[in-house]
Design goal:
mainly alpha; two-stranded parallel sheet; 14 helices
Length: 327
């Protein structure tokens, strides 16, 4: 195959750093699994493996045979998103099982030190039901926002920016998972012992759904992981907030066409304390994590980290034909 078909303009970036980060996630996963083994439900992997296999085949086809760089980049990004959602989700469970004392009281104190009264904010949103509904829709639309951003950047041939966003999302996610093991928390609704009747106009998407799994991981009663029902169990730093900041950056690359996406992602950030039960410091830490990840990703995607290795392996001189080997 002509090597020129595999060459990609440096201005459009490379996916190599994202693949290496997925590999790093796997290494962490293996290390935690060796330290404290978990069992896995077999039913969760078949569908994911089939989807990844289909995406991989599609990517190879549009890279090697019917060359469509933009479409191949889109397929690769979707594949990376799926892979990290699985590997990162499993890793978050293994990390949570090793967590120490809960940090909720400390995080609450930090909020108050910043002048933020979470319960006052929640009551104000509860008094504005229309806003509460908007918040809920914005919060649960994280995956659609990600896909729309990726599609929009690909359609406008901003492949480098799309790769930066994906790489930053993976990097921020890995950092959030590892940090969450040092700062475990259950979130405001559980910490404050709030019930459905306390804020009747709020129907938060992630107020308590994570609590059973988090508790089971910490007390050892949950030792079987089903990848089809992994919950978001990270409180500090907020990965929802990190992704919201990355979405705002990604949509900003589209100019005026991205304003609606930026506003919706901003609404998701405002919704995160309510529908994600997060502390303000969770949100601020998530935004800071996203900023650092975007800066790092901007540098990482410039370089084809893996391709020189593959090229060196491909350029090795072939062995002599069997007939010429010495007896």
């Amino acid at each position: 195959m002509n090597a020129s078909l595999h060459r990609e303009p440096e201005s459009q970036g490379f996916d190599d750093a994202s693949w290496l980060l997925i590999g790093l996630c796997l290494l962490f996963l293996i290390a935690f699994q060796l330290a404290a083994p978990f069992a896995f439900a077999a039913n969760g992997f078949a569908g994911s493996a089939a989807m990844i296999g289909l995406l991989w085949t599609t990517d190879r086809f549009y890279t090697r045979y019917r060359v469509r760089p933009a479409f191949a980049a889109l397929v690769t990004s979707v594949m990376l998103i799926i892979l990290f959602s699985i590997v990162g989700g499993i890793l978050s469970y293994l990390v949570a099982a090793q967590g120490g004392a809960l940090w909720d009281a400390r995080l609450q104190r930090w909020d108050l030190a910043l002048g933020f009264d979470w319960l006052g904010y929640a009551r104000w949103v509860n008094d504005h039901p229309t806003l509460a509904t908007l918040y809920r829709w914005a919060y649960v639309s994280m995956i659609p926002q990600l896909l729309v951003m990726v599609l929009a950047l690909t359609a406008t041939n901003r492949l480098r920016e799309m790769r930066i966003a994906i790489c930053a999302a993976i990097l921020a996610g890995l950092a959030a998972v590892l940090l969450s093991g040092l700062t475990p928390a259950v979130g405001n609704y559980i910490h404050l012992n709030l019930g459905p009747g306390d804020l009747p106009n709020l129907r938060p998407a992630a107020a308590v759904v994570h609590y059973a799994d988090l508790t089971g991981l910490r007390d050892g009663s949950l030792r079987l992981i089903d990848v089809t029902r992994i919950e978001g169990i990270i409180t500090f730093p907020s990965y929802h907030s990190a992704l919201g900041a990355i979405f705002i950056w990604g949509f900003a690359q589209l100019g005026r066409a991205g304003w609606a996406g930026m506003l919706w992602a901003g609404l998701m950030l405002l919704a995160t304390p309510i529908d994600g039960a997060h502390y303000l410091v969770d949100v601020l830490a998530g935004i800071a994590l996203a900023a650092a990840a975007l800066i790092a990703a901007g540098r990482l995607v410039r370089r084809p980290w893996l391709r020189p290795v593959a090229k060196a392996a491909g350029d090795k001189a072939p062995l002599p034909a069997p007939s010429t080997l010495p007896a």
